[in-house]
Write a structure and sequence with these properties.
By secondary structure, this protein is of the alpha+beta class. It has helices spanning about 1-20, 25-40, 45-60, 130-135, 145-150, 155, 165-170, 175-180, 190-195; strands at about 65-80, 90-100, 115, 125-130, 160-165, 180-185. It has a 6-stranded antiparallel beta sheet with strand order 4-3-2-1-5-6, with helices on both faces.
Length: about 200
């Protein structure tokens, strides 16, 4: 009987600790669909994602495990599925870019993470991290070919900085924002390889 009580306690603890990291993806999806046009300012990707996180938090949506993703390339960042005024997404060049990663497994980047990006395509789509990296950041000739990733110059330069979204948008000083950082200078090719 004592063993069963202990087992039940362990199971409940695991369920509760997992749920504190599990952001409410369906509610985030609903908010994203509402804000895709209304909450979008062209050329202000950082502001767009920061305002989105604030609205989610203010609306009472669970944002535990929501991360801000900054993408840099040390110069021009080429994206291949960017929002456009035309009928189809376009190839564009950014200096850097921001998106949101919704992790279901704590503070890590893995194959079960979803990406929310106001500049990804012409419709509000939330996609898995692997699909996002391939579609948005990889030239079509590299998609689905992890063996070519190591040899690609652009991908070799691409780096990620990841921050706890809730801590980041709640911060008031640069030092508080720095404390919200989870990862700095992650190499895209290493993240991409880990998703296979």
């Amino acid at each position: 009987m004592q063993f069963m009580k202990h087992l039940l306690f362990v199971l409940l603890s695991l369920i509760l600790s997992w749920s504190t990291y599990a952001a409410d993806l369906p509610k985030l999806r609903d908010l994203f669909e509402q804000e895709f046009t209304a909450g979008y300012t062209e050329g202000e990707c950082g502001k767009n994602v920061e305002e989105f996180v604030k609205k989610a938090k203010f609306s009472g949506i669970n944002i535990q495990g929501v991360m801000l993703l900054e993408i840099q390339q040390g110069g021009n960042l080429f994206v291949y599925h960017a929002r456009s005024n035309g009928p189809k997404p376009d190839r564009r060049v950014f200096f850097h870019h921001y998106a949101i990663v919704v992790s279901q497994n704590g503070w890590s980047l893995d194959s079960q993470d979803f990406v929310i990006d106001f500049d990804f395509g012409n419709q509000p789509r939330i996609v898995l991290l692997k699909e996002y990296l391939e579609t948005m950041l990889m030239s079509p000739r590299l998609r689905g070919k992890p063996e070519l990733v190591d040899k690609d110059f652009e991908i070799g330069l691409t780096r990620f900085t990841v921050a706890n979204a809730q801590a980041f948008v709640s911060s008031k000083t640069p030092s508080e924002r720095k404390q919200a950082l989870l990862f700095k200078d992650l190499k895209m090719k290493e993240v991409y390889r880990s998703l296979w």
